[in-house]
Amino acid sequence: MLNIDLHCHSNVSDGVLPPAEVVARAAANGVHALALTDHDDVAGLAAAQAAAEGTELALIPGVEISVTWNGQTVHIVGLRIDPVHPELAAGLHNIRMGRIERAQRMGDDLARSGIVGAYEGAYDFAANKQMVGRTHFARWLVAQGHVPDMRSAFRRFLTRGNPGYVEHQWTTLENAVGWIRASGGMAVIAHPGRYAFNARELHLLLDAFRALGGEGIEVITGSHHPSEYGKFADLARAFGLKASRGADFHAPGEGIDIGRLPALPHYCQPVWQGWPELETHFSLSPT
Ligand code: AMP
Ligand code: MN
Ligand code: MN
Ligand code: MN
Fold first, then answer.
1. Is residue 164 part of a domain?
2. Of 67, 84, 102, 169, which has the highest C-beta tally within 10 A?
């Protein structure tokens, strides 16, 4: 079987490894094709591509775009994007500028609960000063001893109803899918099992996404419990969407490692079907 992992993060967003080390780790784990999908930034793709050059691993240029839909945050992965496409680049830049302002409000909110210095602290954990997010706050909260681990950081802080959570308007679903498509890429709904939508809302999301030209949905992801795989494989089939697979790797020892996931259910149509990057691999193993 081809080992294809189409969702992971480097320290260009909220992962901890530099892009070249993410690629090396994927290769060591036996991954044949890897998409680097940093949040709202494509700045790691050149280094990742350089690291993949001359190896067996195909690097797929990707991104994970933050969207607000129906009052909730939804993540849209773009695969096989063109990172220098002006419309995509400008849109992502705007989202990152919004992140800086949001981080200030998060720091202010934590300060009101007696936790001071979080804004500056989070920035110390952000290798890319344009891409700051809740994970950087969480790492700082752990390092300061406010919480024992990342899980508790997100349970006690940074989530709706808790200190450090602020409402934020990301971009629209229409923009995210539009930029991805304009740059030649394929739009995929990330970790659908993570959203607090009821069935009706989830179906509305899939319909709206399809109508905008979205093509895929993650079925096998580190964010899904194995008991959820079948549900999302069925939804993909029912809504005419292709299926994706990705660990959503952020850091060694945190969650699932790159490429260490089960295969897609056999009845899924993989998002990577027919990709020219994989032709040499397809001819080696016709599955
Ligand atoms: P942001 O885009 O700044 O709101 O941060 C979202 C990121 O926070 C996600 O991509 C995850 O990496 C991380 N995250 C969100 N919820 C949790 C959680 N419950 N446990 C661990 N990490 C989380
Ligand atoms: Mn993340
Ligand atoms: Mn995500
Ligand atoms: Mn992710």
1. no
2. 67
CA of 283 to the centre of ligand 3 (A): 33
b/e for 232-242, b at 16 or more Cβ within 10 A? bbebbbebebb
Distance CA 8, CA 64 (A): 9
- Among all bound ligands, the one having the nearest atom to the CA of 106 is 1
Within this chain, do residues 79 and 144 fall inside the same structural domain, yes or no? Answer: no
What residue ranges line ligand 1, CB within 6 angstroms? 14, 39, 66, 133-135, 150-151, 154, 250
> In this predicted model, what pLDDT tens digit does every residue of 55-103 receive, in sequence order?
999 999 999 999 999 999 999 999 999 999 999 999 999 999 999 999 9
Ligand 1 atom having least distance to the Cα of 168:
4
Write the CATH number for 277.
Answer: 3.20.20.140
- Does the pTM of the predicted model rise above 0.90? yes
Domain end among 114, 132, 156 = 156
Computed over every residue of the chain, the mean pLDDT equals 96
Say if residue 283's pLDDT is above 80: no
